[in-house]
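Lab meeting, item 3. Inverse folding demo.
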């Protein structure tokens, strides 16, 4: 009897493919090594893209500043900018017509009723007329809609007008306080204060909206002036009502006039301090004029 040899455990049946475990494990290790590397590369790639975008934005901003343009030139298309420019012109014309009427009426009220607030409002209305005229000059040239140099000149002129007007308002209010001038109250004064206050606030809101879209400091300043006019219009109503109820508080009218004069003076000084250096920086871009 012949002993049969035990089967070889290492024998491989025919047709079976054998993979080298070391090769498989090596490939797995290599893949496992490569995956963290790829994951590490993804954040670096994202950060590079963000850095590239920031560099591009900085280059665009620098190029805009170098050309003496406002920020609106980056956000508005040419036809949009011209459309808003025409709206600014229309608002300025309406503001001039309305505030001239209000200024005449307010001057009349201040003389007839001895109201320092009415006098201050009349001067502010006159200032509003001048500021709207400056806005007309600012946007009168279609090619200069984004001109920073033209914008800064308009703001500097507004600053000078603000300072001169504040001097007149302060002088009148201080004089009335020193002489203890008592305001006279009637229905005419109430109607003038309400109408003028509402109209000026509406104009202020429209000017603020247009100024924000066009990034125009001149339009925003014009809107601020209209807002001050609206506040002064209602201050006439408040001071008159308080005096009617408490005659001892006769000084409220003059005090409001002093406060408004100081606010206009501070705003005018700030405009000049901000705009004069910028005018010097952009004086080489007068081609937009």
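The presenter then showed the designed sequence:
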């Amino acid at each position: 009897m012949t002993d049969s040899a035990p089967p070889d455990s290492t024998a491989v049946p025919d047709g079976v493919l054998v993979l080298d475990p070391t090769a498989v494990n090596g490939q797995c290790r290599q893949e496992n090594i490569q995956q963290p590397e790829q994951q590490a590369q993804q954040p670096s790639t994202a950060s590079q893209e963000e850095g590239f975008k920031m560099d591009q934005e900085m280059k665009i901003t620098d190029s805009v500043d170098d050309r003496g343009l406002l920020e609106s030139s980056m956000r508005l298309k040419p036809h949009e900018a011209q459309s808003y420019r025409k709206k600014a012109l229309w608002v300025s014309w309406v503001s001039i017509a309305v505030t001239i009427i209000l200024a005449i009426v307010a001057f009349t009220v201040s003389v007839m009723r001895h109201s320092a607030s009415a006098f201050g409002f009349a001067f502010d209305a006159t200032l509003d007329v001048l500021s709207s005229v400056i806005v007309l000059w600012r946007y009168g040239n279609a090619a200069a809609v984004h001109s920073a140099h033209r914008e800064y000149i308009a703001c500097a002129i507004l600053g000078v007008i603000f300072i001169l007007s504040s001097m007149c308002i302060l002088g009148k209010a201080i004089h009335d306080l020193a002489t203890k001038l008592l305001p006279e109250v009637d229905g005419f004064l109430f109607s003038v204060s309400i109408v003028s206050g509402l109209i000026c606030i509406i104009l202020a809101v429209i000017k603020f909206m247009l100024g924000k879209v066009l990034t125009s400091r001149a339009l925003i300043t014009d809107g601020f002036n209209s807002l001050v006019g609206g506040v002064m219009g209602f201050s006439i109503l408040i001071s008159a009502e308080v005096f009617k109820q408490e005659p001892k508080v006769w000084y409220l009218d003059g005090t409001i006039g002093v406060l408004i004069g100081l606010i206009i003076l501070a705003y005018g000084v700030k405009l000049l301090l901000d705009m004069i250096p910028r005018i010097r920086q952009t004086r080489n871009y007068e081609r937009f004029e």
